[in-house]
Amino acid sequence: MNLSHLFQRSVQQYGARPALACGTRTALTYTELDQRIRALAWWLRHTLKLMPGDRILLAMKNCPEYMELLLASWHAGLCVVPVNSKLHTNEIAYMLRDSGADVCITQGALYQALLPLAADFPPLQVIDIGSGQYQQATNSPALEPTPLDEDDLAWLFYTSGTTGRSKGVMLTHRNMVSMAMHFLIDVQTLSSADVIVHVAPMSHGSGLYSIPYLIKGGLQVVPESGGLDEAELFGLFNAYDKVSLFAAPTIVTRLLQHSRQHTVSWPGLRCIMVGGAPFYVEDIKSAVACFGPRIAQMYGQGETPMTISALSAELLAAAVARDDNAMLASVGFAQTAIGVTIADTDGNPVAAGVPGEVIVRGATVMAGYWNNPDATAQTIGGGALRTGDIGLLDERGLLHLKDRSKDVIISGGTNIYPREVEEALLTHAAVEEVSVVGAADPEWGESVVAFVVCHAGQVVSEQELDAVCIQQIARFKRPKRYIFVSNLPKNGTGKVLKRELQKTLENAP
């Protein structure tokens, strides 16, 4: 089973159904989209001379052409390398070189920035989707689907690189199909009446979640802005029915702020599927209070895309209703065919309630890291993925994440998990965002430091923050220092760059 085959199956079943739209413009049907991707696949193979298994790098903001190129690439037997268009040119150049991609498709100003790379990495071709070349390509002859094996590479995903050089995660058709099946079982059931709106980058979670919608004949909508414009998105909630979207917690926060500041409605909203970064208890409660039982949560990694654990919108809303903070503080139950265990430093399973490294087994676990056998061997053993995340399984089977193993603060020989400190601080009404890191301490080894962002027009004292910590966590875990900032550094997917915060501490006089 492969992604191209599944799309062809949808064309047969849902040919006249709308498949792809830009904003509220008339959508392409599945039959019309199929005609375009067959022509683009012919262009990729015969004009650009790509062969099955070759890599094609997509460096674009969200647009309908992104979906066309994903499907055309798989139709042609290629592996896509989707990268965040907000990355620095040097970062994209590294991914081009490392992946060995012979074609980079991009747009606008980014095309001008990347075009010089063609001279650096021959025979690289850099192509602008706004050019006549791309428009002519859609009039090419139709290519029949390329035979594919389910273990062929489909998606080469470069990790966010928040702690070092990005690694290419090799995801096969088998991985991606399994991810889609888990979505349909554990996150959300779908029909051809469902709509997904792509406001988060299609190079990451939003693009991955396009696949179950394609399988079930749903409609993909790309906002005309190509990203998150709150007023535009609320307009789409009124223009379409059964609308869902993938969102990092930062997107949810922006939607909540907009709803408080403007008179808006969301009659067509079905679900906001949240992942990609910690989703704190108070933020979950605020989201459910605003949008009702329309918030779902999932936890995954690039190495097992979007698929480790989940809480459906129904389960999460019920937890809010009964004030089940333990469930809200978790990342849910292991998804249906995913094995999750917690192991000590020697790899041995630990008892319920004991923290350790989260180990994952299942058909979604990556094939390995591209051209990096050493990193693969350190991360995968016996088919199991060492996630590098510290967590525990409670008596109900809920998975609780503590932190990345590298983020654990060891103070006086005791482990302190930043997330539990962050959860406590976020209960103060004045605190909008917080990130906790460790700082070198001559007496304790490390001490706890909290970077705090307050809501606009509000202030809070260190004594008040100490008080909320003492009410909820052990006294020794409270921050020894508070640093008030206007914002937290984040990468393109909304993850806080704790390494940058630690650099701030290291460089402080």
Please render the helix and strand layout as text.
Layout: H1 3-14, E1 18-22, E2 28-29, H2 30-47, E3 55-59, H3 64-75, E4 79-83, H4 89-99, E5 103-106, H5 108-114, H6 117-120, E6 125-128, H7 132-137, E7 153-158, E8 168-172, H8 173-187, E9 195-197, H9 205-208, H10 210-215, E10 219-222, H11 230-239, E11 243-247, H12 249-261, E12 269-274, H13 281-291, E13 295-301, E14 304-311, H14 313-321, H15 325-328, E15 333-334, E16 339-343, E17 356-361, E18 368-369, H16 373-379, E19 380-381, E20 384-393, E21 399-404, E22 409-411, E23 414-416, H17 418-425, E24 431-441, E25 445-454, H18 462-472, E26 481-484, H19 498-507
Parallel strand pairs: 1-10, 3-4, 3-5, 5-6, 9-10, 9-11, 11-12, 12-13, 25-26
Antiparallel strand pairs: 1-2, 7-8, 8-18, 13-14, 14-15, 16-17, 17-20, 19-20, 20-21, 22-23, 24-25
Output the CATH class name of the largest domain: Alpha Beta
For the sheet with most strands, the description reads: 9 strands, mixed
Poorly predicted sequence stretches spanning 5 or more consecutive residues: none
State the strand order across the main sheet: 2-1-10-9-11-12-13-14-15
Structural class: alpha/beta
Q: Give the CA-CA distance, first to last residue.
A: 58 Å
Overall helicity: 25-40%
General shape: globular
Radius of gyration, CA atoms, in whole angstroms: 23 Å
Number of strands: 26
The tally of domains stands at: 2
- Which homologous superfamily in CATH is the superfamily of the largest domain? ANL, N-terminal domain
Please count the helical segments. Answer: 19
Query: Approximately what portion of the residues adopt beta-strand conformation?
Result: 25-35%
CATH architecture of the largest domain: 3-Layer(aba) Sandwich
Mean of pLDDT: 93
At CATH level 3, the topology of the largest domain is: Rossmann fold
